[in-house]
Amino acid sequence: MPGSRCPRPALPILRWLPRYSRAWLPLDLLAGLAVGLTTVPQALAYAELAGLPLQCPFCPLQYGLYSSFMGCFVYCFLGTAKDVTLGPTAIMSLLVSSYAFHEPVYAVLLTFLSGCIQLAMGLLHLGFLLDFISCPVIKGFTSAASITISFNQIKNILGLQGIPRQFFLQVYETLRRIRETRAGDTVLGLTCLAVLTGLRAMKSHLPQAAPAEPLVVRISYLIVWISATARNALVVLFAGLVAYSFQVMGSQPFRLTGSIPQGLPAFRPPHFSLAVPNGTVPFQSMVEDMGVGLAVVPLMGLLETIAIAKAFGVANVLGSFVSSYPITGSFGRTAVNAQSGVCTPAGGLVTGALVLLSLAYLTSLFYYIPKAALAAVIISAVVPMFDAGIFRTLWRVKRLDLVPLCVTFLLCFWEVQYGIVAGVLVSGILLLYSIARPPIKVSEGAVLLVQLGSSLHFPAVEHLRDSVCSRALAAASPPRSVILDCCHVSSIDYTVVVGLSELLQELRRHGLSLAFCGLKDPVLQVLLSADLEGFRHFPSWEEAERCGGAELGGSRAEPFTSTAESTGLIQ
Questions:
Q1: Is the bond preceding 282 in cis, omega lying within 30 degrees of 0?
Q2: CA 384, CA 91: separation in Å to the nearest integer?
């Protein structure tokens, strides 16, 4: 039909696949390969951070690889942004270590339930719930997580074993056993960390090679760019070769990753119960054990990219069928994807395929990867998450926001969930206080002009009544009628209507009047529908002064004064 618009395809892949250009293919392949070379070593490192499984310390890292390919394939079909990549991250791995209790069955079930929650939030458009997690709370959590995760890896840099995972016990035990440091692990770990830091700095300061540059310059640029982009893979490969060389010579100064089961994970639904030596833990008990984690994990997963909640949900639900722990969008790998010139979400297919190939054929080679090298990869990834400048910025901009920031930051060292929940509660209290105590400006004169600085809701009505009565009926001055300027009030509720009715009656008992001005249409309709006795309104306070000054008790020739002495900001 002429003039009609074609409906948008239900699947996002149908928006770009029909117009896919052959010129995009090399760029998507390059980007997928670059992201894959970053994903595999990070997946191995993050699995150790997640602590899966505790009872089998020689094969925990397969879960990181299990978690790294499903999101790539799902996002190719459901993704709306070409740069975003899904997979395990340091933050999500830290949360898994808190809520999965180092038990794979818990981790996989947490993935399934988180995916269901994220999918429901996407379908029901519940993204507004994330608006209640303020920026100071997020900054406090990520900064504390950066320190927690980094210190968690110090034991691997030093070659220590048997260090508890709780942060304060971890600090105490690490310092107490510092003399047990293994020189080989420390030297290798610090070397890897220095190389990663140098390659990161090199990439950030690498100038773009212009097409007019000589071929040698462009090739040199490409070599440096590839080396810096795939720095994690290069460092892990170098460390593995060093460890293998020592193994061949008959000595091993490093703690190695150990054997990782080879092959692809079985496609099966998650277990909804857990067999233990004393019986079975039922589904209900597992859910109760996870507790607040069922809110924290899906919300933190969606925090920065709520627009693709459905893709996250589907990726986690399907990921649980291949023994994945919860995944989310990775900022670091997304940046690599964008800088590699990816054109469509098809780059994720290459990344996912590379992870599957690693699972199928390369796991035997992972045996020789030193844990110190993986620790260096994690520390290099999470250190930039610490934002020291946010404390200085909030001190300069709004010091009150330092309260939820510091509460979240400090309590996250104790337990992650306590820090996040406490930060959200403190932010909520500050928000509710601003609603319950809106700014009220009182201009003195024969008639009081009371100006509300924001909308009026039921927690604030008693504060408004007390403020008006204390100034209108003050013992130090004669009683004065009141004009209530509501030009900034966009909505009111029934409790406010009741409170205003009582205020009208209170002033009338003292022979005074209350007039309204600047009422917006929705507020005016509510007040007219309430049929308040003695209700009067004017377009502006000037009109109220001119038309009702004598009746209100003032003089039309006497203007309102608003000086430092006569103006109060009551909060």
A1: no
A2: 13
Look-up: residue for tokens 């390969």?
33
The pLDDT of residue 229: 83
CA distance linking residue 167 with residue 380, whole number of Å: 19
Residues 456-489 pLDDT 10s: 888 888 989 888 888 888 766 778 888 898 888 8
pLDDT in tens, 382-395: 888 898 899 999 99
Contact 515, 546 (CB under 8 A): no
Please write the tens of the pLDDT for every residue from 326-381. Answer: 998 887 888 788 877 888 999 999 999 999 999 888 888 888 989 999 999 989 98
Cα of 282 vs its chain's centroid, Å: 31
Q: Rounded distance, CA 247 to CA 402, Å?
A: 52
Residue 399 lies in a domain: no
Q: Within a domain: residue 409? A: no
Any residues with CB less than 8 A from the CB of 459 and at least 6 apart, and which?
A: 432, 435, 436
Q: Quote the number of domains for the chain.
A: 2
Q: Which two tokens stand for residue 7?
A: 């409906």
Q: Which of 456, 520, 521 is nearest to 494 (CA)?
A: 456
Distance CA 445, CA 566 (A): 9
* Amino acid making up residue 84: V
CA-wise closest residue to 545 among 557, 532, 536, 533 = 557
Burial class of residue 215 in the structure, from the number of CB atoms within 10 Å of its CB (0-12 exposed, 13-18 middle, 19+ buried): exposed
Containing structural domain, residue 64: 23-134+150-160+178-384
- Within 8 A by CB and 6+ apart from 332, the residues are 38, 42, 381
Who contacts 220 (Cβ-Cβ below 8 Å, separation ≥6)?
Answer: none
Measured CA to CA, the distance from residue 411 to residue 6 in angstroms comes to: 52
> Token pair 């390919």 is at which residue?
69
Distance, CA of 472 to CA of 464 (rounded, Å): 12
Question: Distance between CA 239 and CA 373 in Å, rounded?
Answer: 6
Is 165 part of a structural domain of the chain?
no
Q: Specify whether 124 is located in the same domain as 264.
A: yes
| Within a domain: 410 | no
360 with 226, same domain: the answer is yes
Rounded CA-CA distance 45/153 in Å is 10
